[in-house]
């Protein structure tokens, strides 16, 4: 198979979820050899990586050997008022977005690029969203600092806005109202799609002069 990533290897962390699976399918269609991971028990087709557990990251790195690209879509969203803060859930959110990717950078033998996921909540503070906002904001700084630390390996982040990712499927009018409101708050008058995110990831993986950046894919909402 030929394509932009012919004979390259790609690890998609969180690759069993809808977005991660779409990214894995897209890079495979471009010729890469793809490994997907999940924090669930390992199977014949899914590698176990729990970003809260350094041993699991180190073991996976040993099994994989050198890998050209790592894309981490892992997320453990947590929202609560400050008075209801649960430290363990906050720590899980930070592990998924910040400390876990640092462990990937430490243990994985990455040859070309590491791509992380932030989110627009980092730039739009609101009541009860501090945990999501802070962890997503930290991703942008992680991309900058890891780009310097891992150079010449490229490190970037992507920050999507509201994307119709399927989380609202089955909610009928409630989903339609939510997406319509979100769309009205963007400059382009629409929400994003999984394909929009996949296209951005493919570009980031192939953009050899891009590093240390956070790409905002939010229709101008920020």
Summary of the model, kept short:
With 222 residues, the protein is an alpha/beta fold. Helix content is 41%, strand content 19%.
Our Rg estimate from Cα atoms comes to 17 Å
CATH domain fold name: Rossmann fold
Query: Average pLDDT, to the nearest integer?
Result: 93
Tell me the major beta sheet. Answer: 7 strands, parallel
Percent strand:
15-25%
Q: Based on the coordinates given, report the CATH architecture.
A: 3-Layer(aba) Sandwich
Tell me the CATH superfamily: NAD(P)-binding Rossmann-like Domain
Summarize the helices and strands and which ones pair or pack:
Layout: E1 9-13, H1 18-29, E2 33-38, E3 46-48, H2 54-64, E4 67-72, H3 87-107, E5 110-117, H4 130-150, E6 154-160, E7 163-164, H5 173-184, E8 192-193, H6 194-206, E9 214-217
Parallel strand pairs: 1-2, 1-4, 2-3, 4-5, 5-6, 6-9, 7-8
Helix pairs in contact: 1-6, 2-3, 3-4
Please describe the structure with a list of short key phrases separated by commas or semicolons.
single chain; 222 residues; alpha/beta; Rossmann fold; 7-stranded parallel sheet; two-stranded parallel ribbon; 41% helix
How would you describe this structure to a colleague?
- By secondary structure, the protein is α/β, with parallel strands linked by helices.
- The protein has a single domain (9-215), classed as 3-Layer(aba) Sandwich (Rossmann fold), CATH 3.40.50.
- The chain has six helices and nine strands.
- It has helices at residues 18-29, 54-64, 87-107, 130-150, 173-184, 194-206, and strands at residues 9-13, 33-38, 46-48, 67-72, 110-117, 154-160, 163-164, 192-193, 214-217.
- It has a seven-stranded parallel beta sheet, with helices on both faces. Strands 7-8 form a two-stranded parallel ribbon.
- Strand 1, helix 1 (18-29) and strand 2 form a beta-alpha-beta unit.
- Helix 2 (54-64) packs parallel to helix 3 and helix 3 runs parallel beside helix 4 (130-150).
- The longest helix has 21 residues, at 87-107.
- The protein is globular.
- The termini are far apart.
- The model has no long low-confidence stretch (mean pLDDT 93).
């Amino acid at each position: 198979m030929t394509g932009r990533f012919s004979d390259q290897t790609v690890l998609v962390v969180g690759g069993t979820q809808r977005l991660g699976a779409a990214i894995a399918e897209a890079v495979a269609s471009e010729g890469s050899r793809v490994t997907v991971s999940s924090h669930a028990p390992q199977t014949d087709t899914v590698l176990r990586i729990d970003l809260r557990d350094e041993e699991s990251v180190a073991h996976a790195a040993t099994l994989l050997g050198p890998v050209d690209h790592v894309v981490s879509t892992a997320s453990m969203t947590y929202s609560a008022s400050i008075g209801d803060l649960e430290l363990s859930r906050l720590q899980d959110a930070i592990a998924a977005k910040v400390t876990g990717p640092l462990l990937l950078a430490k243990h994985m033998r990455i040859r070309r690029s590491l791509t992380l996921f932030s989110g627009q909540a980092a730039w739009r503070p609101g009541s009860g969203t501090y945990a999501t906002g802070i962890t997503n904001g930290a991703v942008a700084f992680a991309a900058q600092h890891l780009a310097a630390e891992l150079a010449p390996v490229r490190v970037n982040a992507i920050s999507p806005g509201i994307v119709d990712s399927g989380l609202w499927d089955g909610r009928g009018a409630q989903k339609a109202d939510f997406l319509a409101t979100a769309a009205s708050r963007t400059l382009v008058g629409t929400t994003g799609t999984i394909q929009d995110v996949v296209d951005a990831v493919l570009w980031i993986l192939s953009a050899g002069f891009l590093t240390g950046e956070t790409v905002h894919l939010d229709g101008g909402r920020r």
